[in-house]
Amino acid sequence: MTQQPERQDDDGGRPPQGQQPYRAQHQPQQPPQYGQSQPGARPPQPPSPYGQPSYSGGLYAPFVPRPRVGFVDAIKLGFANYANFKGRAGRSEFWWWYLFRLIVVGIPAGIGYGMLLGGIVSQLATDRQYGSGYGTAPDVVFTGAMGAGTVLMVIGLIIELAILLPDLAITWRRLHDGGFPGPMFFLAFIPGVGGIIVLVLTILPSKPEGMKYEAQ
Fold it and tell me: Does the keyword Transmembrane helix feature in the UniProt annotation (predicted)?
């Protein structure tokens, strides 16, 4: 009896269509070339500016420090944000505004107070020297210099009231820039040390945490 040859598949032992050969399936993958990212890998995050920590979790926007400004620009920003309690204010913006406030309020009020007090003291000294003695009350005459001093003090008070709101607003924003909530301004009302606490907080540098107030 003649032995029949074994019947082979029509495809000659080739793998089914659409399937990679065994060797192709099990070949090791080549490492990515220099400058190329591995397929499916997450692209690298850009470094945070100025060496600050990166907040990739989406809590804050990327940290961008407030620009440095001069004296005139700080005054313009102060009045442009007259009642703005949102956002941030840099240290240069805050301290130039503080100097402006000291000039327009402190100088007329200080000069007026000196003129008024000087006139009173001068008259008291004259009355003691030429008066009738310690048993009578001294006579104080309201002179022209004392009147001018009083006017200057009133002018300083009016200016202080006019810039009270922007002064509070810029302090509020300066606290934001340092990463502190604005209501910490009210620590200034603590007797004795409150003003010193707020002063120290406004001196501190900007922090990335302050960006959460920028997004309000």
Answer: yes
